[in-house]
Design a protein that fits this description.
This protein has about 325 residues and is mostly helical. Helices cover about 75% and strands about 0% of the residues. The protein has helices spanning about 5-10, 10-25, 30-40, 50-60, 65-90, 100-105, 105-125, 130-155, 160-170, 170-185, 190-215, 230, 240-245, 250-260, 265-280, 280-300, 305-320; strands spanning about 95, 95-100.
């Protein structure tokens, strides 16, 4: 049994129900939407966010239809945000597959993302819980704010770790935070537990993005994106930001500014990556992630349901130790 299968074990039946609802939602009589939904269905990821939502729900109460619909809502919203991100970033590939915009063009991709976003909100309404609808709507605002902030940071001179953390908190971590939050809300958990679970999800989401960013400094076809892809898109992530801060190398600072300006070459990216590794940027990012992991683990250790506690602890380890 794979590590992920072990994590899923106590919520296996719940995930089956989630998949049934999600797959039935990805259906349309329109030929173009049908092709897009088919492509999305073939690329269904590891379902990290629905897994977290269901683990939290199982710990705090009885899983209900509102729980499943909340999970579907979030996965729909997540999928829509990925489609829109690929258009904004002009990405032709998503985890080793052609992106939706590469297959169907930017105009169709944007509209397909809008369609999924609307579908997500409809599923939220189906929970008959106005609080869930409100929280989902707020999440949509956070994701958009994160994308705008990321674009803004590219245009601002200088390099800031705080700006990096602000972006990933609004983009990646917001989805994980809402997953844990809605897991609690959907089973009627008290507000103090909802807040605690949101904090757990946010920490996990931050770790997830830092690990994802570390991947960008290594060449591995399993990862699904070329080495230095973030820099090619104008993004400076935690490892290189640390390297620039600790070693005021004027040449490297100029190269980093070229990354932000969109004029960096492949060989210059390779030079920046090598510099980052020499300066201990990867080790620093790992250290930050380990500190956050300890915080998440401390929260998960308080879970009363033994199988759920063990799966949640394994989930945290999987996020930080995964190889793709």
């Amino acid at each position: 049994m794979s590590p992920l299968d072990t994590i899923k074990s106590p919520i296996a039946k719940d995930l089956e129900q989630f998949n049934k609802i999600f797959d039935s939602t990805l259906h349309s009589s329109d030929p173009t939407l049908g092709k897009i939904f088919s492509a999305i269905g073939e690329r269904k990821g590891k379902l990290m966010r629905p897994i977290l939502l269901l683990l939290v729900a199982r710990e705090l109460g009885e899983v209900s239809q509102a729980t499943f619909l909340s999970a579907v809502t979030l996965e729909m919203l997540h999928t829509a945000s990925l489609i829109h991100d690929d258009v904004v970033d002009e990405s032709d590939e998503r985890r080793g597959h052609a992106s939706i915009n590469a297959l169907f063009g930017n105009q169709v991709a944007v509209l397909a993302g809008d369609y999924l976003l609307s579908t997500s909100l409809l599923k939220a309404c189906d929970t008959l819980n106005l609080d869930i609808v409100r929280r989902i709507s707020k999440l949509g605002m956070e994701l958009s704010s994160g994308e705008i902030l990321q674009l803004h940071n590219v245009c601002v001179d200088g390099f800031s770790e705080q700006n990096y953390f602000d972006v990933i908190k609004l983009k990646t971590a917001a989805l994980f935070a809402m997953s844990a939050e809605l897991g609690a809300v959907s089973v009627g958990a008290p507000e103090n537990r909802v807040t605690e679970m949101r904090n757990l999800g946010q920490i996990i989401g931050m770790c997830f993005q830092i690990r994802d960013d570390i991947f960008d400094y290594y060449d591995d076809p399993k990862i699904g994106k070329p080495t230095g892809n973030d820099m090619a898109e104008g993004k400076l992530t935690l490892p290189v930001l640390y390297a620039l801060k600790t070693c005021q190398d004027e040449h490297m600072i100029q190269l980093a500014q070229k990354v932000k300006n969109g004029g960096v070459t492949t060989s210059e990216i390779a030079t920046l990556i090598a510099f980052t590794k020499r300066q201990g940027g990867i080790e620093y990012a790992e250290q930050v992630m380990r500190k956050m992991t300890a915080e998440a683990t401390a929260i998960a250790q308080t879970f009363n349901n033994e199988p759920i506690r063990q799966s949640t602890l394994r989930y945290i380890d999987f996020v930080t130790e995964r190889s793709l």
